[in-house]
Protein backbone atom coordinates (compact mmCIF):
# COMPACT_ATOMS: atom_id res chain seq x y z
CA UNK A 1 0.00 0.00 0.00
CA UNK A 2 2.79 2.43 0.82
CA UNK A 3 4.32 1.77 -2.61
CA UNK A 4 1.09 2.87 -4.34
CA UNK A 5 0.74 5.87 -2.04
CA UNK A 6 4.29 7.01 -2.81
CA UNK A 7 3.60 6.61 -6.51
CA UNK A 8 0.40 8.65 -6.18
CA UNK A 9 2.30 11.37 -4.26
CA UNK A 10 4.96 11.53 -6.98
CA UNK A 11 2.30 11.65 -9.71
CA UNK A 12 0.48 14.42 -7.83
CA UNK A 13 3.69 16.44 -7.48
CA UNK A 14 4.43 15.99 -11.18
CA UNK A 15 0.94 17.18 -12.16
CA UNK A 16 0.99 20.17 -9.80
CA UNK A 17 4.48 21.18 -10.92
CA UNK A 18 3.47 20.83 -14.57
CA UNK A 19 0.34 22.95 -14.12
CA UNK A 20 2.29 25.59 -12.22
CA UNK A 21 5.01 25.73 -14.85
CA UNK A 22 2.38 25.97 -17.62
CA UNK A 23 0.68 28.86 -15.78
CA UNK A 24 4.05 30.65 -15.47
CA UNK A 25 4.83 30.07 -19.15
CA UNK A 26 1.37 31.33 -20.21
CA UNK A 27 1.72 34.48 -18.08
CA UNK A 28 5.17 35.07 -19.61
CA UNK A 29 3.73 34.77 -23.13
CA UNK A 30 0.84 37.13 -22.34
CA UNK A 31 3.24 39.64 -20.78
CA UNK A 32 5.53 39.59 -23.80
CA UNK A 33 2.57 40.08 -26.14
CA UNK A 34 1.39 43.06 -24.05
CA UNK A 35 4.85 44.63 -24.21
CA UNK A 36 5.03 44.09 -27.96
CA UNK A 37 1.61 45.69 -28.42
CA UNK A 38 2.68 48.71 -26.34
CA UNK A 39 5.80 49.15 -28.47
CA UNK A 40 3.75 48.99 -31.68
CA UNK A 41 1.20 51.52 -30.44
CA UNK A 42 3.94 53.91 -29.31
CA UNK A 43 5.54 53.73 -32.75
CA UNK A 44 2.21 54.26 -34.51
CA UNK A 45 1.34 57.31 -32.37
CA UNK A 46 4.59 58.97 -33.43
CA UNK A 47 3.31 59.12 -36.99
CA UNK A 48 2.06 62.45 -38.26
CA UNK A 49 -1.62 63.18 -37.79
CA UNK A 50 -3.47 63.24 -41.15
CA UNK A 51 -5.00 66.68 -40.48
CA UNK A 52 -2.01 68.27 -38.79
CA UNK A 53 -1.99 71.36 -41.03
CA UNK A 54 -5.70 71.97 -40.48
CA UNK A 55 -5.33 71.73 -36.71
CA UNK A 56 -2.35 74.09 -36.82
CA UNK A 57 -4.40 76.55 -38.89
CA UNK A 58 -7.16 76.44 -36.29
CA UNK A 59 -4.63 77.10 -33.54
CA UNK A 60 -3.19 80.07 -35.41
CA UNK A 61 -6.67 81.53 -36.01
CA UNK A 62 -7.51 81.07 -32.32
CA UNK A 63 -4.28 82.80 -31.30
CA UNK A 64 -5.01 85.63 -33.71
CA UNK A 65 -8.54 86.07 -32.35
CA UNK A 66 -7.24 85.94 -28.79
CA UNK A 67 -4.64 88.61 -29.50
CA UNK A 68 -7.43 90.89 -30.82
CA UNK A 69 -9.66 90.28 -27.80
CA UNK A 70 -8.69 93.39 -25.81
CA UNK A 71 -8.24 95.67 -28.81
CA UNK A 72 -11.20 98.00 -29.36
CA UNK A 73 -10.10 99.52 -32.66
CA UNK A 74 -11.11 96.61 -34.88
CA UNK A 75 -14.49 95.54 -36.18
CA UNK A 76 -15.57 92.26 -34.63
CA UNK A 77 -19.19 92.13 -35.70
CA UNK A 78 -20.84 91.47 -39.03
CA UNK A 79 -24.05 92.28 -40.81
CA UNK A 80 -26.54 89.48 -41.33
CA UNK A 81 -25.97 89.39 -45.08
CA UNK A 82 -22.20 89.88 -44.91
CA UNK A 83 -20.44 86.55 -45.59
CA UNK A 84 -16.96 87.97 -46.15
CA UNK A 85 -15.69 86.48 -42.89
CA UNK A 86 -16.28 83.00 -44.32
CA UNK A 87 -13.50 83.57 -46.85
CA UNK A 88 -10.96 83.74 -44.02
CA UNK A 89 -12.32 80.70 -42.16
CA UNK A 90 -9.93 77.74 -42.07
CA UNK A 91 -10.99 74.74 -44.10
CA UNK A 92 -9.85 71.17 -44.11
CA UNK A 93 -8.11 69.95 -47.26
CA UNK A 94 -10.59 67.56 -48.81
CA UNK A 95 -9.89 65.56 -51.97
CA UNK A 96 -12.77 67.22 -53.88
CA UNK A 97 -11.92 70.82 -52.88
CA UNK A 98 -9.74 73.05 -55.02
Q: Return residue spans where pLDDT drops below 50 for at least 5 consecutive residues.
A: none
Rg (CA only): 34 Å
Q: What is the helix tally?
A: 2
Helix share, percent: 55-70%
| DSSP E strands, number | 0
What is the overall silhouette? rod-shaped
Mean pLDDT level = 82
Structural notes for this entry:
The chain has helices at 2-45, 52-67. With 98 residues, the chain is mostly helical. The chain contains two helices and no strands.
Chart the SSEs and their pairings.
Layout: H1 2-45, H2 52-67
Search tags:
98 residues, mainly alpha, 2 helices, 0% strand
Brief summary:
The chain is mostly helical and 98 residues long. The chain is 61% helix and 0% strand.
